[in-house]
Amino acid sequence: MKKQKSIQSFLGIAAVLIVLNIVGSYVFHRFDLTSDKRYTLSEATKNVLGNVTEPIFIDVYLEGNFPAELRKLQTESKQLLEEFNAYNSNVNFLFIDPLSAENEAAKMAENLFVNGMKPINISVNDKGKQSQEMVFPWAVAIKGENRAKIQLLKNAMTATTEDKIASSVQHLEYAITEAIHKVNTEKSKKIAIIKGIGEPNDVYIADFLRTLKDSYFIAPFTLDSVATNPQKTLKDLQAYDLAIIAKPTKEFNENQIQVLDQFVMNGGKSIWMLDQVQADMDSLYNSTSEMLAYPKDQSLGEMLFKYGVRVNPDLVKDEMGSPIKLAVGQQGSETVYETFNWKFAPYVVSGSTHPIVNNIDVVKFDFANSIDTLKNNIKKTVLLSSSPYSVKVGTPSIVSLSKTIQEKIDPKTVKMQSFPLAVLLEGNFTSVFKNRIVPFKTDNYLTEGKPTKMIVISDGDIVRNQLDQGFQPMELGYDKWTNTLYGNKEFLVNAVNYLLDDNGLINLRTKEVKLALLDKEKVYTDYNYIQIIIVVLPLAVLAVFGFVFTFLRKKKYTK
Fold first, then answer.
1. Which of helix, strand or coil describes residue 134?
2. Together in a domain, 406 and 371
3. Residues 251-260: pLDDT tens digits?
């Protein structure tokens, strides 16, 4: 009877397991037990993965003997990629150690560096002992001839290693999904770089253009033809999805303004990077270390005012300025340099959770102007602002290099506040030519626009990259004088992606991931106590259990 019941139980369990396996082959589900649901893929990611019908390979260069901090990033990357693969088996990944001997470390490291995947040194603090680890925190998504780089570690300047890891993990799903989307989707959106407005030479915005070229069609678009055929110029511009107006120095005439205005009215997106004051660092490097900063006008004020913002002809001087290196003397044949706080280059830390600026590095401005937002029906979002320790300097005025770096401001006597430097505008804009005679007649003229978006930035130099000794463009945001990399490129690329994003990928940047990281200060303070807890206590418990078990066993069998 007992044997029969055992057989029945066995057959019952076997039957349940068979049914579960059959059901499991038709029903797919993975359980995410994390509190922040970090392994639950967003709908935008699922949509991207759903369109992957051919194999995509992701090479991840995060293999090796890493310190604990980087192992966390390695583990999180692997687990997230496993989720991608579980959802769509066409997404394959491989972890590679680029510095292993069998991979010809020197050759592979050089190849990665040439392709823009620069290594970084991670400082590891182990009980007060500092060590440096060189790693390549990158991955590459590959589909046929298409390749897309994935930056796995955000190298924030002011952050600790733990904060960098936490920030990077939060950024992982967006970074990987964007790369998969990039290699799996043919480019379709077109960007016009507006020319003929006294804009910088292409070599000074080359890194920005190169970055955009990976995802979008970009082309120069001159407004010179407005003089002869404004209707055709407007029609040609409307074939583009986004217009970028970067640091114009010439005034716009009425025909050019109407072309840009009607482009906006018909739903065209735009980014405006404007200087309302003539001031630049080169003008300061003279015998007096002074320059005259004076207002300049591109005749765009009325149009932007109608849209809901005003870029003021002033300079924002921020106590939280960016570092600047200046020669202070000679030591033998060597020039001695010191680092100073340059207050006319606001060191802007984003405090917003908007997807454009959420979790980005510090952005550096140069001779920025304040922006006023005006009341109308347009939704306005301040993306970046100066610190609360800022003042406005009216123009015209004399800017002195030596006085600015030496002056001390008493917050008790000087009123300080934060000023908007970059603003996003969304909605149905009203034409600047409403109730006015238009410069030229055109078909489909609109006074009330279709829904669209634009971003206004009060600094034309935010897009400017420096040149190396061979006069080749360097990475946007990199300052060769202080060896500092700012978040300018990430901000501008995010801005473009937000304006042209139809599938909501950019919103993944707002995903919150909370890592349970060790409190190192507490670990160092209670190191011996923790050792006892995790080493001695388990052994003591095991010994007590063994003693009690042996005692009870002897007592039972000696009766």
1. strand
2. yes
3. 999 999 999 9
